[in-house]
Design a protein that fits this description.
The structure is a single chain. This protein has a 6-stranded mixed beta sheet with strand order 6-7-8-3-9-10, with helices on both faces. A 4-stranded antiparallel beta sheet has the order 2-1-4-5, covered by helices on one side. It is built from 7 helices and 10 strands. The protein has about 230 residues and is of the alpha/beta class.
Length: about 230
Amino acid sequence: MIEMQEVMKKYPNGVTAINGINVQIDQGEFVYVVGPSGAGKSTFIKMMYREEVPTSGVILVNGVNIARLKMKKVPLFRRNIGVVFQDYKLLPMLTVYENVAFALEVIEENPKYIKKRVMEVLDLVNLKHKARMMPTELSGGEQQRVSIARSIVNSPKVVIADEPTGNLDPETSWEIMNIFEEINTRGTTVVMATHNREIVNTNKHRVIAIESGKIVRDEQRGDYGYEG
């Protein structure tokens, strides 16, 4: 599913963010990525969807070495990857429905299928009744649910989430986590970078801890392992 072999990422300023990582994530897993700020978590996550390119090493996603993928092939690769950001990244001039539908329109899906599929995923995230509203009319938690709906509308094999509850209150964070759990039970791989200690310690899954660009812990049903 996802495999990294001797992956290193060194930035032009000389900072080595990732230093010789080897890891494998199988289809259907739910993986938390944890570690202190500046440990390399975001770089690790971004390399999985080709936002960052490693300096050296191999990154296999569905059998394709995306570390050497040509730029013109990146959009096609990303159709099988759903990405959820901390700051939602919704298009402010589009409605909830249009934000989610956009991901299917750019790949020229059949209009009838788009309508059916968009309403299915909005129902999954409990926002079917707000399909015609604008992002500015929604709460932060609702905007994040739209972001999740957009990330899964293409039925990706993997969803990558970078601090998806970072801007949300505790109650809303749990609502968002319940959606990720449901997505995972349907067979989608979930890889989530998070600082939320309570969520990691309560909803037990595999935990990969990164410090100074290296994996220092990889445990099934692990704990967060850091204070705060």
